[in-house]
């Protein structure tokens, strides 16, 4: 039987409140307040208030980790890519996939959309508009009570001890130093590296080039020749926006001889892979993920249709940019098929793993274990780029490259694209979130519990709350032996 959807958003929010109450067991608080240098210590600090950050914060709150905070350097409503550099029209995930709701029906996007716009609107909609997804995430964090502080940039993390001797972390922020027993890095694409473009493009003056993650003045590209490097979804999105803003010509350059038209992430969206890939032997994890990441993420039909409707769009295959220079106020690109002249270049070349680029990891970047430190693939599977991914513990925490130098990095858990080699697309896609966010949260709570074992054992020994009153007059005691 199909149950009717809530008629209004207020009714849905009442359902959310009831559902959270119904699944609140176990309700007992189990963490004790801590201080460091006399200042309060959070049990968990989540850096990043995008979809991954609020998902893991939601999972932690459901496990009664209430002394937590989520911070984000962006202003309210501009967390993540959805209304900033994300230039797609809609999410690439199927509209019925669950995410930060962690499988609580009243918290799903579908429930919010139907309550906001009606069930018929939901039925007609093919893909989720990115602006609506952004609105949903803001609603989600409000109704779940996740504490978020916007406009706070995180800096270097270093070790410290609580005043009762437990390990903790000091986090430098733009809002002053913060202390936490656990940190979750949920900073998306930038979590363990940075946006990358070929050095010959990066060397061009900034007035001639940009990465797809940057804010671009597309209106200024009207009547210009724009060259885009890359053939993934974001490259197509940026090409489309340039065309829609009146660019004279847009040329997209694919380094492969054949465009990538298969999306491997569609194949792996099943419970076995999403839940258990991270538990498999290294050779199988490497084999699967190096093949998938070697294919790179493809573009969908909608991305292609958006650009191909423009007669002034051109796609070049097997044509990388070998060199670049500015000449006569324009960019001359050297390619295998000869030079190409453009007014502006956009690099859709993704990210590279390099913890030295992350201000949070200043004090430990050189000692974070990478896949190349722990596993040597057979020659036919070797890939230097993928070897730079962090080799993570089962709880998604960092491991040391040289044991003993920075043991405190075991209290920093990663929940972003850098988890991909270790666990599959667990920290970079909505479809894995209902499995991966609770796993990260469980890693945090396990560490908190383990560190508190002496206190918890003492609490157990002193526990004396009676659940029954015995009438001593009704007790018969055995007679002492003669």
Instruction: Characterize the overall form.
Output: globular
User: Which consecutive residue ranges, at least 5 long each, have pLDDT under 50?
Assistant: none
Strand percentage lies at 15-25%
| Alpha-beta classification | alpha/beta
Radius of gyration using CA atoms only:
26 Å
- Number of beta strands: 18
The helical percent reads: 25-40%
Number of helices: 16
**N- and C-termini, Cα separation:** 73 Å
Described by strand count, sense and barrel closure, the largest sheet is: 8 strands, mixed
Mean pLDDT: 93
State the main characteristics.
single chain, 482 residues, alpha/beta, eight-stranded mixed β-sheet, 30% helix
Task: Tell me briefly what this model is.
This protein is of the alpha/beta class. Helices cover 30% and strands 20% of the residues. The strands form four sheets. Strands 1, 2, 3, 4, 5, 6, 7 and 18 form an eight-stranded mixed beta sheet that branches.
Describe this structure in words.
The radius of gyration is 26 Å and the shape is globular. The strands form four sheets. Strands 1, 2, 3, 4, 5, 6, 7 and 18 form an eight-stranded mixed sheet that branches. The protein has a five-stranded parallel sheet with strand order 9-16-10-11-12, covered by helices on one side. The chain has 482 residues and is α/β, with parallel strands linked by helices. Strand 10, helix 7 and strand 11 form a beta-alpha-beta unit. Helices cover 30% and strands 20% of the residues.
